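Feature request disguised as a bug: please show the residue count (224) next to Phenylalanine aminomutase (L-beta-phenylalanine forming) in the output. Example input:
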Amino acid sequence: MKDHALARSKYAGLVYDTPVVYRGHLDSMSRNWTQRDEFWNALDINPIAVALDNKWAHEHGLPKSDVTFPWDPESKRVYFMKVFHGLHCLKIIRAAMRNHELGHPIKHNPDFHIYHCLDTLRQDLMCAADDTPMAMMNSKGNVGEGQVRTCRNFDQLVAWTRDNARNACYHRIAEHPELSERIPEKYAFCEKDSPYYSTMQTYFKEHGYMPGFESDEATKDVEF
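Example output, currently without the count:
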């Protein structure tokens, strides 16, 4: 266990050093639907995209991504971080369930996106093969309740994706989640301290935005 805890992850250098108490009932499962919706909508998946240097990606054994980073297309390509892709899938599945409960149409094609997400999560769980024995509890559905697990630090991963060396300035865009990952508008969120801020500003000053992307409403984060 000690060797496992000290082993750093291949890409972000994370270790199993963060104790987390497992709870079967959190805000994500609240009986208050407003509280529950707020929890899931606040779950930020924008760190999903990182702009990785081509040399670094090659040295770390990553396949060549088909999507170049628009503000440095010669040196960097865009990759999606696995854990955020999984969270994205959870939000899609949860939104489909919620829309069904409310009698609203399901936005995502169940023959593709939802079932794709279910199988993606299946593959992720089997790949991780978490071997933690969870204690059985007398109360139904509370297996492992209160058990302390040692996890990787999720906030450290978010910080790694947000570092200027990798930050893709990426947001999913409300009303347009289906658009290609190649469109520059999805990478229009560089902070002023980003080395790509001026490049981004110059591009949109010269080319403008796609129709429908000019307002803050059009470029706010998408909620599932």
